[in-house]
Design goal:
By secondary structure, this protein is α/β, with parallel strands linked by helices. It is built from 15 helices and twelve strands. 42% of the residues are buried.
């Protein structure tokens, strides 16, 4: 415990004290109401709290590492968390390979990939592709949709440049960007700079219902993610799964774990990051070839159903918790006890 604590204290003394106090609070709860296992989401504050709690109580813990917490974090902290964890989960094989390459001595066969999944009952696959049939009433230009936090790694500035290129080609379309974040003013200025106010809208944060309606109306979903200068990047953005489940053909970039979700030309289109020209070309294909979009969308829904359901992910996590909580005992007996999750928004919440 002394070694791990010293690593954290060298990182940030005040933060270390805060995490240790949270761990003490959680440990007191666990002494009164024992549980079999702790699981922390993100290899940052939650995993530090879980690690300290483990050292105070002896309750084993595991952690899920996502994206920014892997690539923009102190390596010595991640190494300490991994070394003491019973198991480590990450949401892409790209992340798994990175962790093994950086922390092989600490991993000891404990790192595995479990993909995020969707509750498919919440995402209706549209029966017909959303392009206007010849002779039909004009319903406006096709919608290119993006749903994302307005931060650099989402590559939304490239989407705005691509919109300018498409307009110069004479394409008829509109772009809606749903989401909020620190780059909103900069992106709005970019829209004004290119004179795109009539076809590009930044709609801010919206409810789930509005987002679901947007999926049903969209002809293309675009998310041109990039790797930022400090190494931050996405894993597999959940909105890509949502768009694919909803029947929207997707255009994304060859970044991080995204190619594990999208098989280029089979169930979506992939382009190089930081390339608005190639992004514009891919969107143009979908705007001008509705049969391509229909084929990609159908294959994408099938893939989500087969490999990215929430039921499959939950089953894999439950099995991992059973084994981690009681590796040498009866896993069914361990399953009768509780697992506590430690997440960024709270000290702990109990789930059964």
């Amino acid at each position: 415990m002394v070694e791990a604590s010293a690593t954290v204290i060298r990182h940030r003394r005040l933060a270390a004290l805060r995490h240790f106090l949270k761990a003490g609070y959680l440990a007191d709860m666990l002494f009164r109401e024992p549980v079999a296992h702790l699981h922390a989401h993100f290899a940052t504050s939650p995993s530090l709290v879980a690690m300290f709690t483990h050292q105070l109580t002896g309750v084993p813990y595991s952690l899920t590492a996502h994206a920014k917490d892997i690539y923009v974090n102190r390596p010595d902290l991640i190494r300490a968390e991994i070394a003491r964890a019973q198991a480590v989960v990450t949401c892409t094989d790209y992340n798994r390979r990175y962790l093994l390459s950086q922390f092989s001595s600490a991993c000891d066969g404990k790192v595995r990939c479990i993909y995020h999944g969707l509750d498919l009952s919440q995402f209706k696959f549209r029966a017909q592709f959303k392009f206007q049939a010849p002779g039909a009433r004009d319903t406006g230009p096709p919608l290119v949709l993006a749903v994302a936090r307005l931060v650099e790694k989402k590559g939304l500035s490239d989407l705005i440049v691509a919109a300018d290129l498409l307009r110069r080609r004479g394409r008829r379309f509109r772009v809606d960007i749903i989401g909020n974040g620190p780059l909103r003013q900069a992106l709005e200025a970019r829209v004004r700079e290119f004179g795109l106010n009539d076809c590009v809208r930044l709609l801010g944060a919206q409810s789930h219902e509005v987002v679901h309606q947007a999926y049903q109306q969209a002809s293309v979903f675009a998310l041109p993610c990039i790797v930022t200068a400090d190494g931050d990047r996405d894993g597999i953005p959940n909105v890509l799964l949502e768009a694919m489940a909803s029947g929207v053909p997707v255009v994304a970039t060859q970044v991080s774990g995204i190619p594990e979700l999208i098989d280029a030309e089979r169930d979506g289109l992939l382009v190089e990051p930081n390339s608005p020209e190639k992004l514009a070309d891919a969107i143009d294909r979908l705007l001008t070839q509705p049969e391509l979009g229909e084929r990609l969308a159908s294959a994408a829904r099938s893939k989500i159903e087969a490999r990215f359901s929430v039921e499959d992910g939950a089953r894999q996590l439950l099995e991992l918790f059973r084994r981690a909580a009681s590796p040498a005992a009866d896993p069914e007996a361990a399953a009768e006890r509780s697992v506590v999750t430690v997440a960024p928004s709270e000290v702990a919440s109990e789930v059964r």
